Amino acid sequence: MSTVTTSAVSTAPLINKRIVVDWLGIAPFVIFTLLFLIIPTLYLVMGAFLTPDGSFTLKNLGDLFTPTIMSAYWISIRISVASALGGAIIGFYLAWALVLGGLPSWIRSAFLTFSGVASNFAGVPLAFSFIATLGRQGLVTILLAHFGLNLYATGFNLLSFFGLTITYMYFQIPLMVLIITPALDGMKKEWREAASILGATNKQYWLMVALPILWPSLLGTTLLLFANSFGAIATAIALTGSSLNIVPIVLYAQIRGDVLHNANLGYALALGMIVITGISNVIYILMRMRAERWQK
């Protein structure tokens, strides 16, 4: 009896020290999340229901339905949908070529490494890169002009809806590759073999077996790409300035102050963005959980 008691007493401090060490390990991340994500988000949510003098109001939420702000939301949603669909389609075919296309392994390793870098390449450097490449005096624009093709005479404009969409796709495509590659890796060879034994063609296998299994991953990742582009501001404001009236730029103007300065309306704009991106991320998580169940 005494031996058991002594053993329990001696192991208790070890367990307590291990718990303390574990919590110390995650403490910096928890503190960072609280300071730069959770507390600012709560501050924005509360500010959306307050007037500048601190009184409760619903006017800020009502102002979100004015034509100017609704137009900004609509443009942002269209750009996000276009860049998400473009990134998802191109990224899926690139991932398919890397995983199932029979390419050398070094190409896959190199491309995934590049995708990890490119998916985080945004903001002012990305905007400058596209201006230097596809701007009116950009490298590609000048090269095409030497071959008799005036890119801007065709109606193309980098500082437009289409220009911002293809700029966003630069980081959307590699992000899609990174996320969908594990799902393609999870496709079991036995499924294709079973389909072949039953007489299914390659097209039938993809339409009736592979795509239904990959569909939750594809849909969920596309929604994640939508949320990723919907909240982007640094690239948009560096590329187009105030010429394109998207929600992050309108929000930036309200918070920073202009002739229509209203910080609390900016908080309401941020709340609307949080709701839209939050819904997208929740659906993405649900789709990912369903995909993981299918692939187990």
UniProtKB/TrEMBL annotation:
Stated family: Belongs to the binding-protein-dependent transport system permease family. CysTW subfamily.
Name of the protein in its database record: ABC transporter permease subunit
PANTHER family in the cross-refs: INNER MEMBRANE ABC TRANSPORTER PERMEASE PROTEIN YDCU-RELATED (PTHR42929:SF1), INNER MEMBRANE ABC TRANSPORTER PERMEASE PROTEIN YDCU-RELATED-RELATED (PTHR42929)
Gene3D superfamilies: MetI-like (1.10.3720.10)
Keywords associated with the record: Cell membrane, Membrane, Transmembrane, Transmembrane helix, Transport
Cleaved signal peptide residues: none
UniProt cross-references to SUPFAM superfamilies, sorted A to Z: MetI-like (SSF161098)
Localization per record: Cell membrane
Domain of life of the organism encoding this protein: Bacteria
Keyword Transmembrane belongs to the record: yes
Keyword Ribosomal protein: no
One cellular component (GO) term of this entry: plasma membrane
GO biological process, one term: transmembrane transport
InterPro entries listed in its UniProt record: MetI-like, MetI-like_sf
Domain ABC transmembrane type-1 residue range list: 73-284
